């Protein structure tokens, strides 16, 4: 994930203040200038400018909000193991084995252990991202308070501490950006052994993300005894995906109503669930179907719909449905 960050001039966005406040600030600034030597005053103004530019370009509120949104998106992604050739020798005319071919040669037990490592790595990565982002938020608040403070001493005698804080926040931001992209999984043992005359290339395992599957809340609607569900993926994959749709009746009143639930495999991004009870509330969830490469899926989208009221008799609940129109 590569992101471009553009600095914003926050000073131009400040709202106009009443004249009395401006006169008071100008009076305080004139008093500070009178108390400081000319050279000290110039140093004070220059260092305040440095701090303001850092907060504007490197740690602006707009930038932090974008990072919060990206971390929230990563918390909703699913994490998968991806197999890639480690390197290709120069002049090698034999094409590398395709990933699905390598999977057939991988030791299943060792691969399951690597999937557990990948799940732990994904969880740790999300926790660290949240912690780093919290440090950036607190650092921004502390520097903003320093900038608003009338005390000139932090910009003069205490400037070395301010510079250390700026360098520390820059390092935290670098670590945060580097961690935004899932990394490599380190293997202690080879997952693939040489089998006969087959030349098996060295491989590397990467932890990759897939964008979350989310209901289209404008297009998903409930009717009297059926519901039309639509969902989407932010980035459409090259290959067609399989999904798993679940539904259940909330607050069933009888044993027969407890049967109003089901799991439906779907090979499209839409499905119509029929034979629902009128005037009742149903919960629907959707996710990708289980795959061999899936290691961690912390979030699934859910949707609650209320069917329209209708006659209460003559409706035998059945778990039937048919694919919806794309």
Description of the molecule:
With 326 residues, the chain is an alpha+beta fold. Helices cover 37% and strands 21% of the residues. The protein contains six helices and 13 strands. The protein has helices at residues 19-35, 38-57, 61-76, 99-105, 108-148, 159-179, and strands at 78-85, 184-185, 203-210, 213-215, 221-222, 227-233, 243-249, 261-266, 270-274, 281-288, 294-296, 301-306, 320-322. The strands form three sheets. Strands 4, 5, 6, 9 and 13 form a five-stranded antiparallel sheet that branches. A four-stranded antiparallel sheet has the order 2-3-1-11. β5 and β6 form a beta hairpin. α2 (38-57) runs antiparallel to α5 (108-148) and α3 packs antiparallel against α5. The longest helix has 41 residues, at 108-148. The radius of gyration is 29 Å and the shape is flat. The two termini are 30 Å apart. The relative contact order is 0.13. Mean pLDDT is 81; it is low at 1-22, 88-93 and 313-320.
Q: Nutshell version of this structure?
A:
With 326 residues, this protein is an alpha+beta fold. 37% of the residues lie in helices and 21% in strands.
Secondary-structure topology with pairs:
Elements: H1 19-35, H2 38-57, H3 61-76, E1 78-85, H4 99-105, H5 108-148, H6 159-179, E2 184-185, E3 203-210, E4 213-215, E5 221-222, E6 227-233, E7 243-249, E8 261-266, E9 270-274, E10 281-288, E11 294-296, E12 301-306, E13 320-322
Antiparallel strand pairs: 1-3, 1-11, 2-3, 4-6, 5-6, 6-9, 7-8, 7-10, 9-13, 10-12
Helix pairs in contact: 2-5, 3-5, 5-6
Q: Radius of gyration, rounded?
A: 29 Å
Helix content: 25-40%
Counted by DSSP, the helix tally is 6
Low-confidence stretches: 1-22, 88-93, 313-320
**Structural class from helices and strands?**
alpha+beta
The run of helices and strands is: HHHEHHHEEEEEEEEEEEE
Let me know the average pLDDT: 81
Number of strands: 13
- Report how far the terminal alpha carbons are from each other: 30 Å
Report the major sheet: 5 strands, antiparallel
β-sheet strand percentage: 15-25%
Shape summary: flat
């Amino acid at each position: 994930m590569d992101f471009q960050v553009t600095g914003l001039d926050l000073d131009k966005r400040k709202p106009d203040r009443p004249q009395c406040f401006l006169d008071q600030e100008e009076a305080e600034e004139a008093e500070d200038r009178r108390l400081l030597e000319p050279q000290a005053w110039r140093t004070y103004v220059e260092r305040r400018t440095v701090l303001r530019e850092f907060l504007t370009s490197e740690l602006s509120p707009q930038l932090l909000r974008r990072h919060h949104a990206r971390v929230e998106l990563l918390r909703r992604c699913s994490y998968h193991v991806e197999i890639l050739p480690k390197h290709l020798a120069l002049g090698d005319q034999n094409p590398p084995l395709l990933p699905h071919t390598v999977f057939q040669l991988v030791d299943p037990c060792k691969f399951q252990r690597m999937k557990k490592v990948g799940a732990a790595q994904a969880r740790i990565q999300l926790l660290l991202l949240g912690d780093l982002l919290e440090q950036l938020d607190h650092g921004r608040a502390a520097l903003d308070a320093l900038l608003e403070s009338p005390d000139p001493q932090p910009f003069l005698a205490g400037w070395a501490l301010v510079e250390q804080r700026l360098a520390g926040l820059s390092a935290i931001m670098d670590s945060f950006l580097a961690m935004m992209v899932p990394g490599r999984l380190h293997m202690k043992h080879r997952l693939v052994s040489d089998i006969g005359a087959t030349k098996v290339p060295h491989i590397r395992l990467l932890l990759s993300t897939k964008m979350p599957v989310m209901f289209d809340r404008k297009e998903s609607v409930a009717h009297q005894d059926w519901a039309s569900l639509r969902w989407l993926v932010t980035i459409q994959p090259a290959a067609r995906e399989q999904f798993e749709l679940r539904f259940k009746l909330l607050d069933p009143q009888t044993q027969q109503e407890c049967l109003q639930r089901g799991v439906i495999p779907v090979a499209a991004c839409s499905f119509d669930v029929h034979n629902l009870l009128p005037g009742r509330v149903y919960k629907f969830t959707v996710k990708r179907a289980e795959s061999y490469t899936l290691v961690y899926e912390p979030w699934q989208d859910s949707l609650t719909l209320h069917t329209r009221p209708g006659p209460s008799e003559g409706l035998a609940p059945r778990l039937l449905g048919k694919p919806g129109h794309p």
